[in-house]
What does this fold into?
Amino acid sequence: MRRALCVAFGCAVACGGNGDRRVTAPVDARSDPQLDRQALVRDLEATVLENYSQLTLGNFEAFRDGVAGDQPIVLLGVSPRDVVYGVAPPGVAVDRRPYRRFGPTIYSKNLDIHLSADGSVAWVFDEISYRVQYMGRQASIPIRVTGVYVRDVERWVLVMEHQSYAIASDDILRFAATGQLRKPGEMKNRYVKSEGASTLLLRTAGRFHNSDERYRQRKLSTQDDALILLPDPDHEFRGAKTADAPSLPALFGDGATVGLRDYRVHVARSRRVAWIAANLVIRATLDGDPVEVELRATYVFENRSEWGWEIVQMHVSAPVHLRELTRRIFGTVRSE
It folds into this structure.
């Protein structure tokens, strides 16, 4: 078993145009006044929707063109083994869509876009409707998607994406205890000391989960562009409400602790924004017996306050095997 890094360090789409999308772009007083932030947001909105279109069409060569090719990326899908990372990895051009045999269609329902102060990085959130024709019925599968895009000359390119299907924490704990929770695909650790902030960011991401409320409040943004997504479908917290988000250990019972098992740390060229993808291990108990719960997490940080780096987006999920997803959506254990 790989050792976890202790968190306390010692312990064609018809997606657009239907009126149901919401795109936001806060104006930051610290922003460069020369930037046309609304134009940047519109450009990124078009980029995101074009990516959905290419995925719907199964055109993965075109999708790959919208992914950064000269810097490390991380793409996390819904299922446990769906993880792609590295510089120009071959998996980018592979058809990773669930139920791909049935021609899924992706609809954007709630696209949310936010820019860094300098306009060079953006983080997004969408609640997509993933529609599949299956056994004579059409299912609309709710999938949460968060991502990070960076500006590459005159266009936006994707550097991190995290897709998930929300599951109640009680179910996750029970699945872990009975061996039904699949281990997320491993990632080779990326930690570049020369980036300067890597050490601090890694420590902050780890410590955040197990520390007291005072530390959590210092490191968690409550501005309008902040977002916390926890595994439970009811645990979506935005803006000032992020302060109400429960800690991750609290979701899995008294005495639970969180560790980082695999991690990929990336710092933007501006050194003002950073993002991390990690596999987490939660040590908890169920009916008195020890249980290890393995989850995925992605974080976006911006250096924006007297407290330094703040988490502006965090997305934690349990990877879901297609067999379990099929059972939940269609009521049958058949899967692709």
